[in-house]
Records
---
Amino acid sequence: MSQTVKKRSVEIAGHRTSLSLEEAFWRALKRIAARDGVSINKLIEQIDRVRGGNLSSAVRIYVLERLEAEAES
């Protein structure tokens, strides 16, 4: 599993911001977005709307919860 942190620029809610995630989380996020039929930016925007804290942490938790839910089904 890649632990290298990658900083990428994303656009959410009409503004650009940067997000730092480990490469493994970027790959998982890309797969989830593809399965949902949305762009990565759109998925991050959805996560941003309901987050309580740091966006990077919120994305990691979202990915973890989605993978756990998929494993259970």
---
Amino acid sequence: MFRLFIILFLTVPVLEIYLLLKVGSLIGALWTVFIVILTAVIGASLLRLQGITTIRRLQESAARGEPPAIPMIEGAFLLFAGALLLTPGFFTDAVGFALLFPPLRQYLAVQILTRGVWMSAGAHQTHTSRSGGRAPDDTHTYNGEYKKLDE
């Protein structure tokens, strides 16, 4: 994972510089700067709208008593999208705008959540009970000692 971050931190700025130079040579430096600023402004306003919608969904989930995991993960994606949209460049803007697309964001959130649940379930299945046997997967029985204290 660390190696992936190093590769991204090295290749994304080089790609951004390359794209800015290419676009600048095609349409001119001033137009390139204008487009970069325009995408940041449009992205910030779309991010605001998506953030309000996500906060509303988070509150509705909490009001229904459901765990608001998906809206929380979507909020993290929106935060990441905002950082990408405010970073000058075309590649980061493209990824940032893609994360503003609700179906993609929800799909990624569900993928993260199901992989996390799957990994947790896999870790849970390796636990053993006190007698040395395997703990049942779908029960919530805990073994332990207790002492009742009188009030």
